[in-house]
Amino acid sequence: MRNVSRIFLMLLIAVVVGSAAFAQSAPPAAGSNLTIGLVMVGPYNDHGWSQANYDGIQYVLAKVPGTKLVYIDKANSADRPGTTVSQLGESLVAQGAKLVVFSSDDMTDEAIKFAQDHKDIFVVLTSGSQQWKDGKDYKPLPNMINVMGRMEYMKMVAGVAAAMTTKTGKIGFLGPLINDETRRLAASAYLGAKYAWVNYLKKDAKDLQFKVTWIGFWFNIPGVTSDPTQVADDFFNTGFDVVISGIDTTEAVAEAAKYQAQGKTVWAVPYDYAKAIDEGKGVSLGVPYFNWGPAYSAVVTSAMKGTWKSHWEWNAPDWKNINNPDTSAVGFKKGTLSKAASDGVDTFVGELGKGLNLWKGPLNTQDGKPYLKAGTVATDQQVWYLPQLLEGMQGQSVSK
Amino acid sequence: MRDNRSTRFAFQLGAVVLALGIATLALLAAGAQPIQAYRNIILGAVGSWDVAANVLVSWVPLLLATSGLLVTFTVGLWNIGIEGQITLGAIFTTWALRSLQSSAMDPALVIILAVLAGMAGGALWAMFAGALKTFGGVNEIFGGLGLNFVATALNLWLIFGPWKRPGVASMSGTLPFERALWMPIAAGSSRLTPMTLIIAVIAILAVYAMIEGTYFGLRLKAVGKNQKSAYILGIPTWQHMMSSFAICGVFAGLAGAVQVTSVYHRLIPSISSGYGYMGLMVAMLVGYKASIAAPVALFFAALNVGSIQLPIVMKLDSSLAGVLQGTLVLFVILGQGARGRLLKKAKVRT
Fold first, then answer.
1. With CB atoms 3.0 to 4.6 Å apart as the test, which of B14, B151, B169, B293 could cross-link to A399 if both were Cys?
2. In this complex, do B268 and A80 lie within 8 Å of one another by their Cβ atoms?
């Protein structure tokens, strides 16, 4: 009788421990075939963020044998009323997806719900930080990985291109919504612009005007966001001759082309997608872009081979060649730049590769309070969670 | 031609065939296989328990909105402002949840109070439209449209302003509520909440019983048929119109409360999801009869959910569902008009 009790007790312990282990572990290896589900916030062919993600998965399909893709785009409540993002993710699972990429920070709540409800599915939440153990939003989910590229560097390069080009000394930044990510990207563009203005052009920083106007979302939603076309027009009509776009679509370039056709000398810098440079030949100074292929290939491969481990990654450019499609997470494609501006960009990229860090004190936040003391280099946390725009920038720091 | 059940059925069948014909032409123009598209929509709506559950999730707010609209249609009012009433219901629900989420109150009680607040919010907004109509002489269509815009603006202001996430104004809405404040989800489902299904069924039964089986319903009908005659017969017309607005608002507010407590678990910019406008289509399609509203609303919900398969499987735009719904309503109304004319001609001949 005692033996029976002991066996029962051991079985009970095994079940409890086994269940706990299962609850804490990643899904089992997917094996040699894997269907990837991709949920995109905008149209798959938006020439911006969504298309960069779509192309990233296309890279995976080409490089990782045995992979297939099912996708849904325009996954936002305005375009697909009555649906939720997790529901759309489930629609992809119904089509065979074992790994689902939620490719927008705006999908965070739904991606977490999905990951919690579907522990057997691998989940990639692009641009989030929930799997960053040292981050503020850490939420352990064994089946989730966060992927992001260090776009801050390329925004700095964009800032350099803008500063080297502007004739009026007035640079506009067409911002999306206000959050940690968008603040640090706008601030990075400003840091690059100021660096070039002061160090390459030998001008006074006070003579550089850098203004941020937020539209309210990553792309135009009529009646809900400000119209990015209108915002770009406002910039060009008030003496800002370069507009750096921080949104996912190409209104800044389109408006710059329109104004240039009317005889105005203006330029724009698109964002997100390498081929966005083709949109505004003659007005695009260059494009800072994401190259998601290598990072997505790595996480897909780990899901197939059983080496998946929940983590957060913030991938740097390959300084040997920032436009290497196989190694660089972010890049900058040069567009219509003067010789001096082009040289300035090259010099700056070279300096960054050698260790130049513009996130170094003394730096104040917009309210004039110290953000980094002299000589202090910002930690990843300080950059990721930038609380305000920086001193010297115009525009709203926090949503009111 | 005689006005009997078979001719009515023939006209309705004709409307369905014509609507399908238009949708098929749209599919062919897009270079798609119509049969495959319809098959995907059906599979996307009933192909598995999960998708069928999604249809039911969509059905609940649509049926609630339709239930409310049947009341206002009975008195001959076009309550276009229902979208705003759903939104206000969601706002009031969110307000109640935010106010009570940190209290020691039982979460179930908090949810109940929040839903009641949502119903009150919807009713209040509907009463505005009613007051504009009754006391200001503003047509309910224009008043309702205006109030819809105000409701949307108020919603956006709250999401991007006072109720924004810490430091972030996000289109994905306010911070989600804790799971304890979600309507209980059915076992084995990600989002189906049995309680809301019960609420929706009770709502449509209550509306049916009220319109068809009560003295109040009869008086509503009298006002709807002929306001002047009803007044002369001693029915207080404006009071009945205001009552119908308030009742519709309660159902619309309930739909908004359901959206917050069981679908999105937060307030989002397009919280009404267009269920108000879709409810108008359902109400028109069923000829303002509560008895067949539930299955038709279910069909519309199935079309909406099933059509998500079109972009996933066939790379087609899912707006086909909207084309089908819109043309269906259009042809049914056209059919009713044509039948009426033919009947008139037949009467004149005899």
1. B169
2. no
